[in-house]
Design goal:
Blueprint: H1 12-15, H2 18-33, H3 38-55, H4 60-69, H5 71-79, H6 87-110, H7 113-124, H8 134-164, H9 172-195
Helix pairs in contact: 2-6, 2-7, 3-6, 5-6, 7-8, 8-9
Subcellular location: Membrane
Protein name: Cobalt transport protein
Organism: Bifidobacterium psychraerophilum
Amino acid sequence: MIASLYRPGDSWLHRCPAIWKLLTLVITGICMALPFGRWWFIGVLTPACAIAFVSAGFGFKEYLRQIWMARWVIAFTVLAQVFFQPWPRTVANTVRVLDLVLLAALITLSTPVSELLDGMLQALRPLDALGIRSDSIALVAAITMNAIPLVNANMRAVREAHAARGGRGGIMAWAVPLLVISLKQANELAAAMDARGL
C-alpha cells in the first residue's frame, strides 16, 4: 500500500474528481511557464491557495505549515537563481514553484491515493494506443506527488522525537532514523509493486 497524507473530509475539494484536480495542476503549471501575465497570475494564485486551504477545511495554519515544510525547496530555488537572475525574476520563479508545491499538497491532502491513481489513469489512457503503459506512468506520478510531503512528514516526526529526547547528538541523531524510515517505506512499496507485477 502506498503511504498517504490524505485527510478525510466532505469539502468541495474532497468531492472534486481527482482528474479535475490533476488537470488544474497541469494547466496551472503551463500557464506559469508562459512569459505573459506572469506577475498577475502569481498575484491571483498565491492568495487563492490560501483560500483553498481554509475553504477545504485544512485551515490557514496548515497553509503556513506547508510553506514551512517547503522551506528547503524555497532556499534551493533562490540559491539556484539569485546570482544569475535579476531579483524580481528570482522572486517570481520562487513563488511559482511554491504555489505549485502548495497545489500539489492540496491534492494529496484531499485525495486518496487510489482516486489519485484512477484520475491519472483516465488522463493517460490515450497513451495505451501508442504502446505506452499508462498504468505504470500513473503509478510513478502518484508516488512522486506523495513522496515530497511524505518525506517532510517523516522528517517532522523524527525531529520531534529527537527533540523530546533532549536533542543531543547533532544532525546524525535524526538524519539516520529518517533515512532508515524512508528506506523501509521504499522497500515496502517496492515489495507491494512487485507483488502486483508492476
